[in-house]
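Q: Structure for this?
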Amino acid sequence: MTLANALIGETVRLITIEGGTQIRRRLADMGLSTGMEVKVITGIEHGPIILAVKDSRLAIGRGMAEKIIVEKV
Amino acid sequence: MNENYRIALAGNPNCGKTTIFNQLTGMNQHVGNWPGKTVEMKSGVCRFEDTTLDIIDLPGTYSLSAYSQEEIIARDYIIHEKPDVVVCVLDATNLERNLFLTAQIRELGVPVVVALNMADLLDANGMVIDTEWLAKALGSPVIYTAANHADGLQELLETVTETARNNSGRPIPEPHPHHHRNGSQAAAPTNGLKHHARSHQHHHIAWRRAHGKGHHPHHLNLPARQHMLAYTHLQDFAVDYGREIEQEIVALIHVIEQFPALEAEFPTRWLAIKLLEQDAEIEAHVHEVPGSEMIFRAAEHSLTHLHDIYGSDADTMIADRRYGWINGLVREVVKSATRSRLLFSDSVDKIVTHKVLGFVIFFFMMWVVFKASTDLATPLIDFIEGTLAGPITQWVLALLNALNLQNSWVSSFLGDGIIAGVGGVLAFIPVLFFLYLTLAILEDSGYMARAAFLMDRTMHSLGLHGKSFLPMVLGFGCTVPALYGTRTERNQRDRILIGLLVPFMSCSAKLPVYVIIATIFFPRQAGLVIFALYAMGVLTAFLIGLVLKKTLFKDKEAAPFVMELPPYHVPTLKSIWLHTWERTSAFIKKAWTVILTASIVIWLLLAIPVNSPGGSFNDVPIEESAFARMSQLFSPALQPTGFGSWESAGALITGIWGKEIVISTYAQIYNLAEEAEPDDEVNVLADLGGIALDLGGALFDTVKSVPLIIGIDLFEDDNGQEASRLSSAIRADFEQTSGGHGKLAAFSLLVFVLYYTPCLIALNAERQELGWQWMLVTAFGQLAFAWLMSTLIFQGGRLLGIG
């Protein structure tokens, strides 16, 4: 499943990040790397979501969330 | 002994780096641009004991990969300018993400001092950091700071100068008495303990070199595992990337070492890692070195090998390993955590970003911002205008009297040219100041990031993302700072698109035009008309954005939206002040010359007679002045819009210098400016006292207006005597040009003011930020659009029998 399908309050583990090197690198810079666990704090339908990534909170656009493959923890 | 060191501040956005910079340099700052870049460069000087520290505030970045201009700038500065010390500022409550950048900077092999900022929030979060271990693992001294309380800065400066001194090879002065010195390390910095100013037991700071002491905690993932790490002579720090990657790094270093030019320029281990990460910027650089094909062949070989093993690209693996290393370090170093600050932020976010409630709060916030900027500014604007028209004009007249120059052109020049021009600039400052003040509070408290989150979907339909919404809001104040606000956009096409849309956000200079014309023609619905104009502007921007996305920017993919949401916090007065001042002064610096020149030029054109039988300089009927003659050339083109008089044409032309000038030109044309008569006696002291009293009254009125912001009586009384005289003149003019459809023509004019060419100051900023061609598109495109819309409204309205 993708991060976009994850429910609010759910904790998921990142499997892969699809899309170009640039996007992957950007996400890594902001603290998202594969293998780590993130929690979906809240989100807007068809809009962006807020993620808990370690001790920071990231807003991520829907398009990007659809490129992040995750599994439930 | 006077020493001079160059210090660079590096850190994530929102880590308080700029606060530290401001605390260290105070008002000793210089703000400019990085050479050839549109990114702001801040530098300043800090004197500490007998050392002079030149401090550069590097752009806030999350990493040193070459994702954005800011990152390239920060990286290039550290590599090429080789500062004596890089201070890595970290948000102590968010160590894991912040250490990513620190690790990258350490890999560059430069001397680093780590400032664990926001240390005052650790207790509240139930966090304890073992700084001794952290210092060991990073091979750098670690200092606690709480920059917003100016805490820990003394220790920071001590450590920075010490580190700089030790790396410069200069003799080390006598140690401070409270330092315990380890005599065996002549070249190494003090090996001791310093107590944090707030003297918490666990808040002690330790400094030890990673390999300086014999023992390592065996469970800490320190870089001293000798089996495969490739150290260079520059580095005593390395992240262990794991056996396979380390092997490839060693292999690449061997190749790189055959190129002395590269070896001299970059730390070799770092360069090898960048080649494995396929960093485009670095690759391009290496390409320029003759014979570098050899390096690329080796890198290609390594990458294929790693891909075979891991099944994914090396850069992903490297990032994962770096985080793995950091994760291990944080687990060792940070003890317990209740994270109450985050829990609070999360619960607020559930409300503030709610799909319904969130938007209600958002619109309420925006309403408060606009009410604050208009209501709070009004008393101060009245004060400024009153003082200029009253005492100041009196003083000038008295002076002229003394020089026997009364009623000469000099008097008219000073009164109608200079004082009117200065008034034009000053009258703006309160509105902009309060607008940017309220926005700064929303920004610094963390709310704006949430607003960007809410707006992401809407902006997405224009091919933009949530963050681009901020420059749009800034546009309601002034287009100039709004255009500067687009500098954080990663891609030039986004900047152009936002830059084209920003002028449709009615800037604060248009507001006085709206207010005065609307109160003349629609006294009962003025508020509604003004609101409609703002809404039309926003709607038009949206529709034009949609059209541009479907046409000119068709191939443009929506920029990815990732943004950090900093935890909510109470902003400091200093940061709000600096934010507000930065934007307000950007306007003043750009605007004052233009507005003053405009005022003088208009005065001159009004004074010069053209085809005027009886007229002479400064004594000519207004309709025979150069200004009227020039305006008469343009008025026929405005015929279809309903306001085709030379007076309106003239007012609109002057509006290109600044929209608010439209009204003062009308006033000047109808000769309504009060002719001030000099009082018999001018008492400067009494006047000064009066000015002080007026200012006190104005400030009191401003404060009194605060609770009214929530109320709705926005456009009440403002109809002074002058306005009513002006109103009958303008009304008569519009009734005549429109053939008895004055109201329709007035609305048509308001729409024209909303859409037509932005002022020269804004156009100049467009040229700087977007280039000549886009400036011309804006200038002529908006003029044509305004004419079309006004004509449509006037002609359409007449056909439908409205007005």
